[in-house]
Every structure is written in C-alpha cells, then in structure tokens.
Write a structure and sequence with these properties.
- This protein is of the alpha+beta class.
- The protein folds into 4 domains: 47-249, Beta-Lactamase; 309-410, PAS domain (Beta-Lactamase, 2-Layer Sandwich); 411-503, Helix Hairpins; 506-661, Histidine kinase-like ATPase, C-terminal domain (Heat Shock Protein 90, 2-Layer Sandwich).
- 48% of the residues lie in helices and 22% in strands.
- The chain has helices spanning 2-8, 14-79, 85-97, 139-149, 189-196, 199-202, 256-306, 325-331, 335-338, 353-364, 412-447, 449-467, 472-500, 512-529, 548-565, 621-631, and strands at 102-109, 114-118, 153-154, 158-161, 164-175, 178-188, 205-210, 216-220, 232-235, 244-249, 310-315, 320-323, 373-378, 384-395, 401-410, 508-511, 533-538, 543-546, 575-583, 586-592, 635-640, 646-653.
- Strands 1, 2, 3, 4, 5 and 6 form a 6-stranded antiparallel β-sheet that branches. Strands 12-11-15-14-13 form a 5-stranded antiparallel β-sheet, sandwiched between helices.
- Strand 19 and strand 20 (586-592) form a beta hairpin.
- Helix 2 (14-79) runs antiparallel to helix 3.
- The two termini are 91 Å apart.
Length: 661
C-alpha cells in the first residue's frame, strides 16, 4: 500500500505529500509495535513448545526404560525354569506388585499352552474381553512371531473395560538353541500411564495414548481446559502397533499488559486503517479491472489474429468499424484502409455490385439469410474468389442492437474441387458405359460360341444327310435342334444386354433341377467325347426366382471349366459331381471336379475380369458368372475338393411360395 501511494505522489502538492508521509509513519510505528509483540509471543510459544518436546522425550524414555526393565525381569523369571507353581507365583507377584503397569503374567510351554498364570482371577490369555476389531490380532499370531524371531514381541491393544485397554509382551525363553517356553506379561495401559506420568507433568499437560485412528485409549490430566492447537505426539514404541503418546498443553491466558497494549494500538489505528483500507480496496478493484480488461483484450486479439476466418464488424448504416487480419489477407486491403469505409466496398466485384448491394441492404434491414450466403469478391490484385458469409447482430452491454458482425470464409478451393469432382464423375460415367459395352461384347463372344458351334454342327449334319439322299424325317431333327440353338443364342444376346443395363425383365420362378438338366444336356456331348462322367446328386428340388437362361449359362460355364481342369487327369478318374440341396433357406449348387486344383497364388485374382489361366481364354467367364449370381442376390465362390480338384458353389435364395422375391 505504501509503495502504491509513493508512486502516486509524484507531482502532488506538499500538503498531500505530508499527509501521506504522516500516515505512512503511523503505519510504520504500528507495524513495529505489532511486530515486537508478535515476536515476543512467538518466542514464548517456541519456548513452551521446546519444553513440551523435552518433557515428552523424557516421558518416552522413562516408559521405554520401565518396559525394557520389565522385559529383562520376565526373561530372568523364564530362564529360572521354574516348575513349581509356588515359585512362579512368588516371582510373578513381585513383578505385578511393582508400580510398572504389569497386571498379569503367564508361563506358556513350547507348544503355547498355558502352564502357570498369576493372578488367575483375571481373564485368561486366550479369552480377552471385547477385543479391538481394528488392531486386535489373535494371541497365537504374536506367540508365533516371538518364537520365530527369538525376541520379545508386543501384541496389539485390546479393550478389557470401558476406560482401560491392555496389551501383552511375549518373551521367548531359549536355552541351548531350543525354545523352553514363553513368558507373557499383560500390561494395563491405564496402570502404566498412571505409574509412569509424574504429578508435575500432569500439571502442565493432558497425557494420553492414541491409536493409529487418532482414538484416545487412556489419558491422565488434572484440569479440563486444553489448548489442542499446540499438542505434540510421538510414537509409543514399544509396544508400537500404531500407538502414540500425545500431550496437549493446558490453555494459558496471555499477559494482561500485552492485551491492553494490543487493544490500545488497534483502537488508535482503527479509524486510519478503515479509511486507508477503503481507499486501497477501491484502487485494487480498479487495477484488477484494468488488468482483467487488458488480459481479455490480449486474449481476444490473439484469438482473432489466429483465425483463418475473416471477421468484419459494421454499424447499422453499413460503415465498417473492425476487420481482423484474416479478412485483410483475404481481400488485400489493410485495416486502416477499410475501417470507416461506407458501401460500396473496394472488394466488391464490379459485375456483381447490384446483387451485392441488394444483399447488403437486406442484411442491414435484418432480413439476411440465416444459413449464410455466397458472394463473389475481388482481391486487390484483381483475382476473383467466392466467399461464404454469415451475419449476426452485434448487441452491446445494455442489450441494444449496434451493428452487424460478419464472418467470411474463402471457399474458392472448395468450389474448384467440386467442379473437378463433377467432371471426374462425368468421365467415370462415360468410362463405366464403355466398360459395360466391353463386358457385353465379351459376354456375347464368350457365350455365343457354344450355340453357334452347335448350329454349325447341326447344319453340317443336315447337309451330309441331304447329300446322302436321306429323307425329310431324318433331316428334320437336326434342323429343329439348329433352330433351338438359334433361339437360345437370341435369348443369350437379349439377357446379356439386359444384364449390362441392370434390367430385371425376364425373371420368373425357376426349378433349379430343370435348369441343371438343361445345362448338362448342352455340354453332354463334349463331356462324353472327353471321357468325363457326370454324377448327379439332387437331394431336394428347389424353386428360385430369376433368369433361367442366365443361370443355365452360369452352370454351363462352370461345367466347361471343370472339364478343362481335368485335361491332365487319367480318363478313369475324370468325374464331375453336380449336387443340389437346401441350406438354411438357400439353394446350394455344387460343381466338383477331379482336376489339378487352383494354385493358392491365383485365388485372389480368380474372379477378376480379364484374368485367365487358359491360352485362348478372355478372362470374362467367372467374372460374368459371379455378376449373374450376385444379380440374383446370391453368392459364388470356390473351395478345394476333399480328394483333389476344386468345388465351385452357388448359393441362391429360395423363392417363397406364391410370392415374387
């Protein structure tokens, strides 16, 4: 306070300086007197504290001496190897009669059984009264500890009466390296404290024994008023176990002269202190408010300067009152050039001035779009950019609307990215159409090979029959089959074209067994020519909803791949197994061969378009098969055959009766 006043008297009139110096001298005098009184009181407190510590250390040493002396006496009593009750009773009575806190003595044999006890009228060692649930340990545990370390061991304290607690000392008696027995002395805390604490100590302090929870077990004092703020405690060891000795000095009244002097000084300085305190509080509040204002301003300035979003404040008439650095970087004009400007602004695009002015007027009228709006602006360099703007009203501390705060984000990069994405999407769509056309062309070339070959074979057979002079009845079947293959080729063209366009025309309920029979009939001649046998295992007829021609082509392709896979298989082992069953609401079609199988490194690419292991293959067969199966909401995959070769499996959902999937 003095330093603040000293800083403020520079240039003040002499009377003001004298006023300040007088009061400063008075405050200094009060401070010196109060300091002397405080140091005197502190010295007295320190002296009493030192005396307290010294007295407690003396008491602790005295208690330790008494208990160690009792330990030696119990050791000697045990080493006498007394066998007669009368001798034990005499020695024990002598110990318990002494003013040393011992109230009962036991002689236990090496097995821990009680042999002699004095006095026998008190509770036995194995049956303490009201054991302390927090610290009590069974007597057997203390006995084991004493015998294991070969030294005297103290037990935890336990309650024996409402105002008394006791603990035990277990002294092992070892002779020739062998445990002869254990002397157990039972201490009463109350008797021990009453005997060890002299009368002059109780005139100064309240002496007590507390446990680790701070609970007072026993105490000794002569007067009631205590001064608990300056108590002192130290560990009570032995017996230990969390016990502590505590001394609380009695409350002493301070000297009367000191109190009168202190009251006089306080009374004389009260008026000055009140006025100075009020002035000091006023100055402190003002300084604190100014410091808080500076901190808040610095914080908000740093926050606004770090933003990448441009901020612009305007009055109700549109005049700019504030712009942050991000706004200045965005438009290219400095804050000094923009603050105080009225519309139109220099960063407005010349070709959009009318539209910008219209939106500006709507905002000032409170009718601006709440979701924000986009405007094209011009940088100082002439570069155009698109900004996303949000406007919010400025409200002062009195709740009055004083202007508008706008946030502006440069979204030119986002606009360019959207345009690039649109162009890329158009190119992707064009590419996908080209891929679809290529897939359709590949499918036509791949799937029409068999029907055209069959037509050629039937027509050649018909020509041969005509040249041989056969009659019409012999030629008609071959021509009918050629017509059937021609119709089938037309259906393939239509279905593949429909599949490329993702059309669902031509779907119907299909009996899968019939579909498999048709596919097997188409390839039966080729299989027979290659000495390949076909095993059919149609466990259950299944009805699905789909395109029969496309599914026949899928099965036909799988059968042809199975036949090609057994080119190197001995003729007697060339077997294709075609099975049909139902698994959890799905029809499962399996085509298994006995070929060489599929190499592990090819499994990842097997269904990829344009991938093939055949020199003359196009790599479209399995890819088309999977597309057809997936268009029927099914799955197509392959597994290794149990014996050899591969198994291709098709899962197709079974159609509900009377409903279209």
């Amino acid at each position: 306070m003095l330093s603040i006043r000293t800083l403020e008297i520079t240039g003040a009139p002499p009377s003001v300086r004298l006023w300040l110096l007088t009061r400063a001298a008075f405050v200094l005098f009060i401070g010196v007197v109060v300091g002397l009184l405080w140091f005197s009181h502190r010295a007295d407190v320190d002296e009493r504290r030192a005396t307290l510590i010294s007295d407690m250390l003396w008491l602790e040493q005295d208690l330790r001496f008494v208990m160690l002396h009792n330990e030696e006496l119990l050791q000697r009593l045990g080493e006498g190897r007394l066998t007669r009750a009368a001798d034990f009773t005499a020695g024990a009575k002598a110990l318990t009669a002494a003013n040393n806190g011992l109230q009962q003595i036991f002689w236990l044999d090496a097995a821990g059984r009680s042999v002699f006890v004095e006095p026998a009228s008190l509770p036995s060692l194995a049956d303490p009264i009201n054991p302390n649930p927090h610290t009590s340990v069974p007597a057997g545990e203390t006995i084991k500890l004493a015998t294991s370390i070969g030294k005297a061991t103290y037990s935890p304290t336990y309650s024996i009466a409402q105002n008394d607690w006791q603990f035990e000392i277990h002294v092992p008696v070892i002779s020739a390296g062998k445990l002869q027995g254990i002397m157990v002395g039972v201490y009463s805390l109350k008797r021990l404290i009453d005997a060890a604490v002299p009368w002059w100590l109780t005139e100064r302090y309240r002496i007590s024994v507390i446990d680790y929870d701070g609970r007072e077990l026993v105490s000794r004092s002569r007067v009631a008023p205590l001064h608990a703020d300056s108590d002192y405690q130290l560990s009570f060891d032995p017996p230990g176990r969390g016990l502590a000795l505590r001394a609380v000095p009695y409350q002493l009244s301070p000297p009367l002269v000191g109190r009168i002097l202190s009251a006089a000084l306080i009374f004389l300085a009260l008026a000055v202190l009140v006025s100075l305190w009020a002035l000091r509080k006023h100055i402190q509040r003002r300084l604190s408010a100014e410091a808080a204002l500076r901190d808040q301003y610095a914080f908000r300035k740093a926050m606004e300067d770090s933003l990448q979003t441009g901020l612009r404040a305007r009055e109700l008439n549109g005049r700019i009152t504030y712009v942050n650095p991000a706004f200045c970087r965005m438009v290219g004009w400095s804050a000094d050039e923009l603050v105080g400007r009225d519309p139109p602004m220099p960063y407005w695009a010349d070709e959009d001035v009318a539209e910008t002015q219209r939106i500006h007027d709507k905002i000032l009228a409170g009718e601006g779009p709440e979701a924000g709006f986009e405007l094209r602006f011009r940088r100082r360099t002439g570069e155009m950019f698109t900004a996303l703007i949000h406007e919010a009203p400025l409200i002062n501390a009195q709740g009055a609307h004083t202007g508008w705060m706008g946030s502006m984000v440069d979204i030119s990069d986002r606009k360019q990215a959207e345009e690039r994405a649109r162009l890329q999407q158009e190119r992707l769509q064009a590419t996908s159409r080209l891929v679809a056309m290529g897939e359709m062309a590949s499918s036509l070339a791949h799937e029409l090979n068999q029907p055209l070959a069959a037509i050629s074979s039937y027509c050649t057979a018909s020509l041969n029959l005509i040249r041989a002079g056969s009659n019409a009845s012999e030629i008609a079947p071959a021509l009918e089959r050629a017509v059937d293959q021609t119709q089938r080729a037309g259906k393939i063209v239509r279905r593949i074209y429909s599949g490329v366009r993702r059309s669902e025309g031509g779907l119907d309920f299909i009996a899968l067994q019939e579909c498999l029979d048709v596919a097997l009939g188409l390839i039966e001649h080729d299989l027979r020519r290659q000495n390949i046998r076909v095993l059919r295992d149609f466990a259950k007829p299944c009805i699905i909803f789909g395109d029969q021609v496309m599914l026949e082509q899928v099965v036909f392709n799988l059968l042809r791949n199975a036949a090609d896979a057994m080119q190197d298989t001995p003729p007697e082992q060339r077997v294709i197994t075609v099975s049909l069953d139902e698994v959890e609401g799905y029809a499962r079609v399996s085509v298994a061969d006995q070929g060489s199988g599929i190499a592990p490194e090819l499994t990842e690419k097997l269904f990829d378009p344009l991938f093939t292991t055949k020199p003359e293959g196009m790599g479209m067969g399995l890819a088309i098969c999977r597309s057809v199966v997936e268009s029927h909401r099914g799955r197509l995959w392959f597994e290794a055959n149990a014996s050899c070769g591969s198994v291709f499996r098709i899962f197709l959902p079974i159609a509900e009766t009377g409903a279209q999937s």
